[in-house]
Amino acid sequence: MKTPVMLDVEIEARKKPFWATLMKQKVLLLMSVPFVIHTIIFKYVPIWGWTLAFQSYWPGKSFFEQVWVGFDNFRWLFRDPVFYQVLRNTLAMSIIQLVFGMVSSIILALIINEVRWTFFKKSAQTISYLPHFISWVVAANLVRDALSTDGGIVNEILMKLHIIKEPIMFLGIPELFWWIIGATHVWKEVGWGAIIYLAAIAAVDPNLYEAATIDGAGRLRRIWHITLPSIRPIIVILLVMNMGYLLSSGFEQQYLLQNGRVIDYARVFTIYELDYGIKMMRYSFATAVGIFRSVVSLVLVFGTNYLAKRMGQERLI
Amino acid sequence: MKRKSLFLLLLIVFTVTATGALVSAQGTKVFTMFWGEPLPDYPGSTIVGDIIERETGVKLQREGLVGDLETKVGLMIASGDLPDMLIAAHFTSLFKDAGMLIPLNDLVEKHAPNIKRLYAKHWEQLKQEDGNVYWLPIQAIPYGPDESKYPELGFFINKKVLKEAGWPVIKTLDQYFDLIENYMKKHPRINGEKTIGYLTLFDSWRNFATTNVPQHLLGYPNEGEFVPVLENGKYVVRQYHTSHAAKVYYQKLNEMYNKGVVDKETFVMNYDQYIEKISSGRVLGTFNQYWQVQEAQEVLLRDDPESILVPFPVVLDELIEEYQRDIPYIQATQGMSITTACKDPVGAIKFLDYIIREETQHLIQWGVKGEHYEVDENGLFYRTEEQKKLFLDPDWRRDVFGGPYFYNSFPSLRGIDQNGNSFMPDRQPNLIYSDSQPTEKEVMDAYGIKAFSELYNKPVDKKYYPLWTITIPAGSPAHIEQTRMKDILNAYVPKMVMSKTNNFEKVWNEYVKAISPLMKEQIKVYQEQIDWRMENW
Q1: Which of A261, A263, A282 sits opposite B487 (nearest CB)?
Q2: Are residues B178 and B300 both part of a single domain?
Q3: According to CATH, what is the number of the domain A82-134+176-310?
Q4: Mean pLDDT on A233-251
Q5: Contact call for A263 and B491, based on CB within 8 A
Q6: N or C end of chain B: which has fewer CB within 10 A?
Q7: Looking at the domain assignment, is residue B447 inside a domain?
Q8: Contact B493, B504 (CB under 8 A)
Q9: For strand B283-289 and strand B139-140, is the pairing parallel, antiparallel, or unpaired?
Q10: Does B473 touch chain A (CB under 8 A)?
Q11: Domain with B347 in it
């Protein structure tokens, strides 16, 4: 009879600090309640919709009238040769965007940070992040015009510089498509991406720079030994977060810039879901593709997070 | 939009509870309606709308399309939240599949004499497998077909080329490209910019402007992806994508591409760029359906009348007799329907019956007699210069006159009526030539015709026509096959045209190998449907 009593006491003892902390933080907790509810409603409840992937879903019928097909949709997906092409394209373009996007943003942030003339600094920053606010629908037309063989500015400049003799049809070369996507992504997002790094750089203790200067460190040395290590946690966290989007990134950009000639290199998951799923009323199949993407994203996020932890870096979870 | 429709629904519920029926104090009935087109909200009062409201006592609560129709239809079906009447282009049949539409046969028989009379010719075509009719197609042709100034499709050629060559009649593909090539050699630049010999449109779903051509080169009208061929008294569905005509066509484009006649970026430009290039007046030729180049043609008529496009029925060989014009048909697979949510189907069908009768059609399409059109001593309608000017302003036409709010998506009449008037003002037979612009008249005079469509043969009747209105069941193996086939066309057509000339044969063989296994299922579905149509229409 003694043991349970002992346990009760133990639990009581353990509970106490928990309840005490809870009471102390009740305002914070109350503040977070709406967000938790929001997350549950919009992020967890829709997971119920995953049941679609195991049905041959037809709209208008109730849940109990649907035909269940087990893993047929997934089997179809993995047997589809287009799927592997899509996987390759999505990964390739995402990685190109991630690497070049992050590197260019960090470099821009470092450069802008070194500028001392405030007016130039501000205007450079504004000009570089403005393209972010243009919709891809407009931006894609700008890109098409710039790369056109019929008086496009890129071809004109290259011809005037005698680098090429004939205009090159950039958007018609399949192997080039990934890099055009990468380059236009950098153009559109570089300034926007730099904002967060600039904020992180602003938070670096100026004493460190002073100390380094006294020790005789030049500009590049200060960047290398102080600025970069200081913003490393931010870089790692952003990297881990972006890993989750590797398979879901890209729709408008590819959709609007693609054409028949480059389709084999342009089709990404979102376009695949649209063409082979929603447009054909194969909602179940589209859901199956979505589940595949979610699972892979989860693995990627946890994987990178684990690696970051192993390497003693800042981590997300 | 969702909230708006909910609000409307509430409003109607209130009206119902307040009056006990769908009839309010003034005797006005209210019907909710969804149409699959992005038209702005009804302004509340228009010339046509007010007359209709006064005569029928019906007020419509409309919901137009916002965003993507496919998604909207999916949502409506999944939620079961329906208006009284709806039309959703070729997705209308999905509502029938979900059991959400009511059969119209008995309603029409008892309450709608005009619908019965005017759709009589088409009635058998409208019957579904269960023998019921669920929708009224947006256009009925009760009497005879009418004529239009421009044919539905053609190899268009710049007027300048024709004029310089002394107005030749173009019959074959070789002849067409020879004319263009010669003109291009003499005039490498037009208006200071590089001349573009030939453009072919390949932008996403519009790429049929390139891939449909082989069937036309063999003399067929627009059937779609496949062509039914009369063999031994029966229509057999055949493919043309790997036909001899296709090979000759793509080879010709390849040759012309390598000679610089076909624009270098024709396969990467989008529709906007296509229209922009043609509007500049420096494009010498393009194949398309007229509605896809109409926008550019209108700009040319206004800004550069000497560069307008003239259509020709070009074929592969001069021995081929062409029948490229559409046989007048109705879109039997879609139309206005009444849903199970409608409380007063009799009232709804009576309203549609009022809309379709000739008097109302004249009101919607021509306007009020003496105000928007006149009648001459032979009973033929015409418009004075001032009246014409009014109708040239699309904003006035839509928001003040209001006809378009009762025309698009609604059941309507097309063709010639019993008095020889066209239901559509711009197809009035006695006015096509006289209302044409001087530059158009110059071409017509040179060829001795009164409309460009007269350059074409009269179509021969085919009971099933056309194949493309057959809907392949969503998500079926045939549907997946179709998407894959279009993928192959997307990838290989540019490849074939843009390859080096000595490489063409190799790419063509690859293409044939890739596309050949991707047509069996579709042909099966089309064949079944064609057979069904031949038996039941």
Answers
A1: A263
A2: yes
A3: 1.10.3720.10
A4: 84
A5: yes
A6: N
A7: no
A8: no
A9: unpaired
A10: no
A11: 2-144+333-413
- Per-residue model confidence (pLDDT) at position B308: 96
Tell me, yes or no, whether B224 and B358 share the same domain. Answer: no
Query: Does residue B449 sit within a domain?
Result: no
Q: Above pLDDT 90, what percent of chain A?
A: 43
| B60 and B120 housed in the same domain | yes
Boundary residue ending a domain (B413, B438, B466): B413
- Between CA A87 and CA A78 the distance in angstroms is 11
Instruction: Please provide the average confidence, as pLDDT, over all residues in chain A.
Output: 87
Per the CB < 8 A criterion, the answer to whether B482 and B225 are in contact is yes
Q: List the single range of A61-70, A135-144, B299-308 with lowest mean pLDDT.
A: A61-70
Mean pLDDT score, A220-234: 90
**Closest Cα of chain B to A67: distance in Å?**
14
Q: Do residues B15 and B140 share a domain?
A: yes
Beta-strand relationship, B412-413 and B139-140? parallel
Over residues B288-295, mean pLDDT = 92
Question: What mean pLDDT comes out for the span A286-292?
Answer: 92
CA-based nearest distance A34→chain B, Å: 23
Contacts of A148 in chain B (CB under 8 A): 265, 269, 273
Percent of chain A at pLDDT > 70 equals 93
Say yes or no: B28 and B100 in one domain: yes
Side chain identity, residue A251: F
User: What is the number of CB-based contacts under 8 A between chain A and chain B?
Assistant: 90
In this prediction, residue A263 carries a pLDDT of: 86
* Inter-residue contact B79 to B98 (CB < 8 Å): no
Rounded to two decimals, the ipTM of the complex is 0.72
Q: Where are the domains of chain A?
A: 1-43, 82-134+176-310
User: C-alpha distances in angstroms, A308 versus A234, B181, B535?
Assistant: 12, 64, 70
Q: pLDDT (tens digit, 9 = 90+) per residue, B5-27?
A: 545 444 444 444 444 344 444 56
Domain limit, last residue, from B413, B443, B462: B413
Q: Are residues B107 and B157 in the same domain?
A: no
**Strand B234-239 to B139-140 pairing:** unpaired
